[in-house]
Design goal:
RNA_pol_sigma_r2, Rna Polymerase Sigma Factor, Chain: A, 75% helix, single chain, mainly alpha, elongated, RNA_pol_sigma70_r2, 8 helices, Arc Repressor Mutant, subunit A, transcription
């Protein structure tokens, strides 16, 4: 285990702060890709870091520290989504379409199409696709993070990619005919 992690687990606040600072942008980017919502990405990242501080003593070093953080972030995101869904049943849904603000004017149009199609996928498919194809985790690592069998992860990635292809193909057809 890395010495900075050991020091953080032993209560060294500076080591813990440095460790979390090093991983902050990694988690924000993951959350942004996962949620499609900048504000949610920052909020979930903050919650993730608070949980990491509270649970640092539970980190065993069986996976990389970033993998451990991604697991916390993924569950925090899913919890946040469940809370929001419950809240939306009691409130009007005016805020529902605020998620589609462009990230940068310099990105190609195809990026927006892919990101838009990703956001339409269910979490069960979007999460493993992001972890596999954006972050390069293997199926076994993703299985540990999401607490499902590796075979299930493979099928979710496969099925999710099929849905993405169909969505992007139908989007291209609409533009050609539009």
């Amino acid at each position: 285990m890395d010495s900075i992690i050991k020091r953080a687990k032993q209560g060294d606040q500076e080591a813990l702060a440095q460790l979390l600072k090093e991983h902050y942008s990694f988690i924000v980017k993951y959350m942004w890709k996962l949620s499609g919502d900048e504000q949610m990405a920052y909020e979930v990242t903050q919650e993730t870091l608070v949980k990491a501080i509270q649970k640092i003593h539970q980190y065993r070093g069986k996976s990389s520290f970033s993998t451990w953080l991604i697991q916390i972030a993924t569950y925090t995101y899913l919890d946040t989504k469940r809370q929001l869904k419950r809240k939306q049943t009691f409130e009007n849904k005016v805020k529902a379409r605020l998620m589609h603000e462009p990230i940068s004017a310099s990105l190609p149009d195809e990026w927006y199409d892919v990101q838009e199609a990703l956001w339409k996928l269910e979490d069960d498919h979007r999460i493993p696709i992001l972890l596999k194809h954006y972050y390069g985790y293997d199926y076994e690592e993703i299985a540990k993070m999401t607490k499902v069998k590796a075979g299930t992860v493979k099928s979710r990635v496969h099925y999710g990619l099929e849905k993405l292809r169909k969505e992007l193909y139908s989007h291209d057809r609409k533009q050609e005919n539009g």
